[in-house]
Amino acid sequence: TQLTEKLEEVVMIWTKQIRQVLVESEQIRREADDVGPSAELEHWKSRMSSFNSLLDEIKSSRVKKIISILQAARSKTLKQWKELDGSITIAANEAKDNVRYLYTLDKFFGPLATASPVMMEHVPSLMNTVFMIYCTSPYYNTSEHMTSLFLKITNQMINTCKTYLCEG
């Protein structure tokens, strides 16, 4: 029972730390007003890396042994642990999926940033790709994500036009 209590304490500390990571990942991002769409991809790549690292740690043999011991002892802390494990898995899958979809837009980000204001040739393909993401992504097709993406695309178009005007 002493071993079980010590292991439960360890799992409770992990639980608290994981909850903190989840809470921080859901907070509203603070970004500059003129940030472009590449920042969206970078955000999701960073989030994917964080959650994949966390998943790797959760699936490590050390953690599995502790969880096995607590399962054998029928510990009540495992209910919370399983819920968090599921939440981390969902967050990691969301980030991975969003990165995969946003990479389909990456080919437009360069031309959008360097083109002259006659960038209209890229816009139809860009919009078709955004529409495809909206229709097929199980995670990214929310109003919040799409609004953020369109805002960043618009910011990039404005920045490109300002640069063009200042150079001309």
From TrEMBL:
Matches recorded under PANTHER family: CYTOPLASMIC DYNEIN 1 HEAVY CHAIN 1, MALE FERTILITY FACTOR KL5
Matches recorded under InterPro entries: DHC, Dynein_heavy_tail
GO cellular component: axonemal dynein complex
Name of the featured protein: DYH5 protein
Boundaries of every Dynein heavy chain tail domain copy: 5-166
Gene name linked to the record: Dnah5_0
Gene Ontology molecular function, alphabetical: dynein intermediate chain binding; dynein light intermediate chain binding
GO biological process assignments: microtubule-based movement
